[in-house]
Amino acid sequence: MTTDSLTDVAGLRVGHATRTGAGQLTGTTVVLAPEGGAVAAVDVRGGGPGTRETDALDPRNLVQRVEAVVLTGGSAYGLDSASGVVAWLEEQGRGVRVGLDPSHVVPVVPAACVFDLGRGGEFTARPDAATGRAAVEAAAATAPGTPVEEGNIGAGTGAVVGRIKGGVGSASVRLDSGITVAALVVANASGSGLDPATGVLYGQYFGERRVDHPAPEVHEEAQRRLAEAAAKNGPPPLNTTLAVVATDAELTKAQAQKLAGTSHDGMARAVRPVHLLNDGDTVFALATGGRTLAADNPLALNEILAAGADLVTRAIVRALLAAESVATPGGTFPSYRDLYEKTSEDL
């Protein structure tokens, strides 16, 4: 049985810590690898990234595996949430061994942030080390294969895409080869996920289902409501879509980096414009190594690369369909479903 989410890659678990109320609208999401870690890589395309420990993932550098990846709200302030994950991993004895004593480890925890400052009404409300610890503990407490919770949760709590509410989304596929590929996204972009001419989510044009266009009067009313909310909210929202794309295939760091890079294509299909100077768009790739690529096929990686891009697109659509409207002192952010009375049928 599959969950159509990141946890279909055996061994991966996902935990969220959500902070709402009292001026807060933010949170942190942690992807926890199996003990012993997963091969990891990253590709950053946005012009304004907020990241931590991404240099360690360069294929030319020493570290091969990571124990966790952190996605967080709070802009650069929120990167402090990774400290809580590092502390928890150290307590478990998980990380890069640096001494004779098994407890002498240094957990390498790559992290990236989205901008959601002030969306709950309080600019100083942002994730911290305690938030990160809560998220990794939540991940560790889940049973294997637990579906990823989507929508206004974790790092997607304060997410906005264009003028509509964003959030967390996830999707997966099992390829004919038996290899599983999956993605988790935090959809939060200055670009739009919505075709202004039709009301269709851009990513839906690339799905397998027939695209149903909203009635013209529904689209007209939705646009009116969006313009009204935007006038109240002030400057357009910032920025950054994050993704973790994972597979149970055995990949080198260089192959994982290629997967991270091509997966950005899926982001470009679902958000327009994308990778702007004020975006920090970042994709992490994880490979758990349970299945080997066909040794007699030098192009065996191609089906994984294609799937990664497709799944990022589908996960962004799912994030937008799962999101719920939010109104706080920091702004009014209508959801796509509320605007178009859309059911959350998956692509």
Keywords for this structure?
single chain, alpha+beta, globular, about 350 residues, 17 strands, five-stranded mixed β-sheet, disordered C terminus
- Rg computed from alpha carbons, rounded to a whole number of angstroms: 19 Å
- The amount of beta strand, in percent, is 15-25%
Multimerization status: single chain
Cα separation of the termini:
18 Å
Describe this entry's structure for a reader.
- With 347 residues, the chain is of the alpha+beta class.
- It is 26% helix and 24% strand.
- It has seven helices and 17 strands.
- It has helices spanning 75-78, 81-91, 129-141, 216-233, 253-270, 302-322, 336-340; strands spanning 13-21, 24-32, 38-44, 51-52, 65-66, 68-72, 96-97, 105-106, 111-113, 160-161, 164-165, 167-174, 180-187, 242-249, 282-291, 326-328, 331-333.
- Strands 5-3-15-14-13-12 form a six-stranded mixed beta sheet.
- Helix 2 packs across helix 3 and helix 5 (253-270) crosses helix 6.
- The radius of gyration is 19 Å and the shape is globular.
- Mean pLDDT is 94; it is low at 343-347.
